[in-house]
């Protein structure tokens, strides 16, 4: 049975992938430091079916103990600081985890001769695009401290492949949504604010466009790449579902039967990327993967899930409130 070392497996996408990998017969060793975004509750139904190490990827020694003991075949690297707004407030932690932490994993994977390293990057490394779509060989032009740190992670992975022969596959997924997403990202923020009848903040004019990928589809793409992807290659993972932020917000308010008067246009995010859009011909052609979930179906399932799991969301609320105070204060200061 193939042993997968999954970093960041207590996070939103990582936990979805872990459940799929376990159901598909893989053995999973999970490494996660359980930051504010990590929560083993996401894996409550899989408890006892995977090994867990509470370890920080910035800690080389601790990671080395795990590699020595577990002798994994493959690393699937999700662990990261992931939110653009937080990266604007506190870039340092993004550089440390996303760059230094990834370096530790590349180095150990080289030393312990791993068979495969799947590097989860993001479409945000390309920067934004007014028209057309990004291909895997488009230039990287990241615009936020988050995307710049992910571009550095991506480029260092490429260097480890070219210089040391690390068998790496690089994946660049678009914006994910679905159950269990930490309520700091757009879709769960709108759900939680609307449920409390609080103003729903839209940055700028709401015309920014994202390509929304249902998380189960993303996890399936990663598993299929693990089985069929070519080492040394890069694959975009997108859905072709492009939506303006304002359309996403209105769709959620409509499902929740909440008034559009809750919408509040606020000062724009500094450096706000206008549009992301991916060409996914390569993953379709080489791996045979294509996103399945329609947006109306995915957003309905997501909203229902949050309604049914409101206790989990509420358990995050006090930490979120102090975070929101910081973000909104920062935005207001920027306005002066
Ligand atoms: P998340 O924020 O929900 O989870 C991140 C996980 O990493 C958490 O469990 C956290 O505890 C863990 N972690 C953070 N720092 C760590 C450290 N120093 N050591 C060990 N563990 C640490 O993230 P997500 O949304 O599930 O994203 C997973 C990956 O996918 C990330 O690499 C992200 O850049 C990428 N990605 C995310 C999206 C998206 O829309 N969410 C889109 C494209 C790519
Ligand atoms: P987000 O979910 O933070 O993902 P990313 O910045 O990685 O794309 O944001 C998605 C879009 O929604 C982005 O254009 C910023 C916007 N946004 C808002 O308008 N209001 C909010 O409260 C948040 C969190 C995001």
List the helices and strands and how they pair.
Layout lengths: L2 E5 L4 H12 L3 E6 L18 E4 L5 H11 L3 E4 L6 H6 L1 H21 L4 E5 L24 H20 L3 E6 L2 E2 L8 H10 L4 E4 L5 E3 L1 E2 H14 L5 E4 L4 E3 H12 L6 E4 L14 H7 L7 H14 L1 H6 L1 H19 L1
Parallel strand pairs: 1-2, 1-4, 2-3, 4-5, 5-6, 6-11, 7-10, 8-13
Antiparallel strand pairs: 9-12
Bound molecules: nicotinamide-adenine-dinucleotide and thymidine-5'-diphosphate.
CA-CA gap between termini: 59 Å
Helical residue percent? 40-55%
Strands of the widest sheet, in order across it, are 3-2-1-4-5-6-11
- What is the CATH-assigned architecture of the domain at 3-177 and 212-237? 3-Layer(aba) Sandwich
Low-pLDDT segments: none
Counted beta strands: 13
Task: Specify the CATH homologous superfamily of the domain at 3-177 and 212-237.
Answer: NAD(P)-binding Rossmann-like Domain
What Rg do the Cα atoms give?
Answer: 19 Å
List each distinct ligand once.
nicotinamide-adenine-dinucleotide, thymidine-5'-diphosphate
The backbone outline, from C-alpha atoms, is globular
The CATH class of the domain at 3-177 and 212-237 is identified as: Alpha Beta
The sequence of SSEs as H and E is: EHEEHEHHEHEEHEEEHEEHEHHHH
Helix/sheet category = alpha/beta
What is the residue-mean pLDDT, rounded to a whole number? 97
Describe the biggest sheet?
7 strands, parallel
CATH topology of the domain at 3-177 and 212-237, which one?
A: Rossmann fold
Helix tally equals 12
